[in-house]
């Protein structure tokens, strides 16, 4: 019998970050903005939709390495790095001094979050070895939605025309099943990605290679 599913964080670039312990809970909030007309002689105004607001997620992660005695700071540093500006991202323009930290996704079982940025991270070290090595920490994380989900799923934001494919640049350590899990939410669909890219050897992916990710509708039809 398979063990419980482990939660993990997908960074925009680089390897996935495994959660040492699953969170006990997380909170997801989504809000819309509506404006009320002010007609005379009515008990209740008619609302007019204006726009959706960015979704938010909050959770607390436990980092604990007491079983191994290794510093927990290594795991904490991987999370803190996600809040630093990454000049390797394609939007970076050093001439205009434009750069940003990477986006992330949170995955746990069949739950896959929207693309989000870490808006706030509160790190507390709570347990230490006798030599001062930090062995346990609590991390409060606040995520904020990075972009419209329709745009992420392949819709052209200018014309509204859906596009059938997306592109992915392979990062060091990535495998085709991990990419498929992150992009399509199901690692067993890796053959669709292999066929879309005419890969005779799915294990031959190399860092920097750009591959096609089939649209999610193709996955549902498969």
Count all strands and give the number. 12
Mean model confidence by pLDDT: 85
Gyration radius (Cα, Å) is: 21 Å
Query: What string, H for helix and E for strand, traces the elements in order?
Result: EEEEEEHEEEEHEHHEH
How many H/I helices? 5
**Which architecture name of the largest domain does CATH use?**
Beta Barrel
CATH topology name of the largest domain, in short, is Elongation Factor Tu (Ef-tu), domain 3
Please list the strands of the largest sheet in the order they lie side by side: 2-1-7-8
Question: How would you portray this structure in words?
Answer:
This protein has 222 residues and is α+β, with helices and mostly antiparallel strands. The chain has two domains: 147 residues, Elongation Factor Tu (Ef-tu), domain 3 (Beta Barrel); 74 residues, Membrane-bound Lytic Murein Transglycosylase D, Chain A (Roll). The protein has five helices and twelve strands. The strands form four sheets. Strands 2-1-7-8 form a four-stranded antiparallel sheet, with no helix packed on it. The protein has a four-stranded antiparallel sheet with strand order 3-6-10-9. A two-stranded antiparallel sheet has the order 4-5. A hairpin with a 5-residue loop joins strand 9 and strand 10. The chain is globular and about 70 Å long.
């Amino acid at each position: 019998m398979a063990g419980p599913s482990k939660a993990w964080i997908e960074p925009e670039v680089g390897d996935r970050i495994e959660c040492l312990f699953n969170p006990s809970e997380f909170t997801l909030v989504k809000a819309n903005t509506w404006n009320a007309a002010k007609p005379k002689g009515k008990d209740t105004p008619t609302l007019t939709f204006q726009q959706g607001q960015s979704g938010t997620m909050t959770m607390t992660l436990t980092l604990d390495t007491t079983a191994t005695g290794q510093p927990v700071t290594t795991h904490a540093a991987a999370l803190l790095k996600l809040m630093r500006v990454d000049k390797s991202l394609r939007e970076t323009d050093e001439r205009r001094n434009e750069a940003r930290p990477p986006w992330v996704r949170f995955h746990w079982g069949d739950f896959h979050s929207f693309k989000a940025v870490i808006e706030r991270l509160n790190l507390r070290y709570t347990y230490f070895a006798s030599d001062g090595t930090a062995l346990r920490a609590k991390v409060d994380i606040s995520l904020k939605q990075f972009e419209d989900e329709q745009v992420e799923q392949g819709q052209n934001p200018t014309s509204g025309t859906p596009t059938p494919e997306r592109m992915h640049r392979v990062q060091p350590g990535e495998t085709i099943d991990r990419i498929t899990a992150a992009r399509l939410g199901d690692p067993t669909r890796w053959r669709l990605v292999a066929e879309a890219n005419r890969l005779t050897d799915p294990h031959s992916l190399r860092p920097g290679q750009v591959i096609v990710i089939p649209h999610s509708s193709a996955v549902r039809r498969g």
